[in-house]
Design brief:
415 residues, Rhopdopsin 7-helix transmembrane proteins, four-stranded antiparallel beta sheet
């Protein structure tokens, strides 16, 4: 009976995803996966019925490929959610090759008539004992490989967050980590218990967890890009840098240069036309092909960054991202990230949160602020939750905010 409940939940979540506005690729993959799970649960429910001539076509072998589909779908969903899906999408079909091979191997049995299948079930199924043994081992190996792979992707995702975001709340994908743990638990039940009742009851619980958090999950890498078109990608104007001569700015696949034009600094790729007295020179193109971030440009960018933070206190924006900050400075995020890494010896996440902590300390030193709560000041500095504030403050200072207040002899309520 529980399996029928699971089928209903699957189909309900499937419909919710289909009708969801602004569906992402992760939503589409999740919808297909839920449909696959619904089919698998349906076949299990049918297997609980006595095998007769009327249902033998459903009861014999149809569920064989399904255990090998869940690992690939977990990988695709994790890779899409973390923005790490391979660029060569056609190769993704290879993940489903083992399941396809099992189906092809089983075709002779599938094509038997109902009477022949009944006879095969009674007298001939033993000849497939080696196949069934191979099948269960393949399921174990598949589960292990995809578990490890997905954890690896989540580890890379955590590093990406530190490079692109100043906050972790709602984008750390901890729920996906727990989802993978749950999937691993199901595989352990398959490996150790081998009881279909326990396995599929666990699957139903897994589906509820998957559907709830999958539908609720917000897009992570959906911020508008600083550069929208290839034409814009070739030229970025940076108004405030003080540069008198053309210099190189960053070594990439498309090398970058910067030069003073009409009071502004034009940061231009080698693909764009580099003009001197109205003429494009091959010497400059060759020179740009080996360009690197120079100390002068890096220092100039860093000075502008420091001025922006000191003057506008941009770090206090709760959901500040690398792209947003690069947009304020009118430079590409890659260059800004390079400058922060080299000049501050920090990633973007640590850099912004260090500034927030320092601002919190500064606000504590203002006598008039003692009437406010500790968290109200923390929110003013850009922290979006108590957990984030406490975690970052302790990571940066080595002590909790409460201990710091005691050390400074400051009386203030925490809430």
């Amino acid at each position: 009976m529980f399996s029928y409940f699971g089928i209903g939940i699957n189909l309900f979540l499937f419909v919710l995803l289909l009708t969801k506005r602004n569906k992402s690729l992760a939503d589409i993959i999740l919808a297909i996966w839920l449909l696959v799970i619904a089919c698998h649960l349906s076949l299990y429910a049918l297997s609980l019925q006595p095998v007769t001539i009327n249902n033998i076509h459903w009861a014999l072998g149809t569920a064989i490929p399904f255990p090998l589909l869940h690992g690939p779908f977990l990988y695709l969903y994790t890779a899409t959610s973390t923005n790490m899906l391979p660029k060569k999408r056609k190769q993704l079909i290879l993940h489903f090759l083992p399941a396809v091979c099992l189906v092809l191997y089983s075709i002779p049995v599938f094509l038997l008539s109902a009477e022949e299948k009944m006879n095969f079930l009674v007298n001939g199924i033993e000849q497939f004992s080696v196949f069934f043994s191979f099948h269960i081992k393949l399921v174990w190996v598949s589960g292990f490989i995809y578990m490890v792979w997905c954890f690896y992707l989540l580890g890379k995702h955590k590093k990406n967050i530190a490079s692109l975001f100043s906050y972790e709340e709602k984008i750390n994908l901890n729920w996906l980590r727990y989802l993978i743990y749950s999937m691993a638990l199901i595989w352990m039940i398959v490996l150790l218990v081998r009881n279909d009742t326990y396995i599929f009851n666990a699957v139903v619980i897994f589906v509820i967890f998957l559907g709830y958090f999958g539908i609720k999950q917000v897009g992570i890498f959906t911020q508008p890009a600083l550069v929208k078109s290839s034409k814009e990608a070739n030229t970025i104007i940076y108004d405030k840098l003080q540069i008198e001569e053309p210099v190189f700015i960053f070594e990439t696949e498309i090398p970058i240069t910067a030069e003073k034009v009409n009071g502004s600094v034009v940061i231009e790729t080698a693909e764009a036309k580099t003009k001197t007295n109205g003429e494009t020179t091959e010497r400059e193109k060759k020179k740009y092909s080996n360009s690197v971030l120079t100390e002068d440009i890096a220092s100039a960018l860093h000075n502008q960054l420091v001025k922006l933070m000191a003057g506008e206190k941009t770090f206090a924006e709760t959901q500040l991202t690398l792209s947003m900050l690069a947009g304020k400075l009118n430079i590409h995020p890659n260059y800004l990230s390079q400058v922060i890494n080299e000049k501050e010896d920090k990633n973007f996440f640590d850099y912004i949160n260090t500034l927030r902590v320092e601002e919190f300390k500064r606000l504590l030193s203002v006598p008039g602020n003692k009437q406010f709560t500790m968290m109200s000041l923390a929110y003013d500095c850009g922290f979006n939750s108590k957990t984030a504030f406490y975690r970052n403050f302790k990571n940066i200072t080595g002590q909790s905010p409460s201990d710091y207040l005691k050390q400074q002899n400051i009386q203030m309520t925490s809430e």
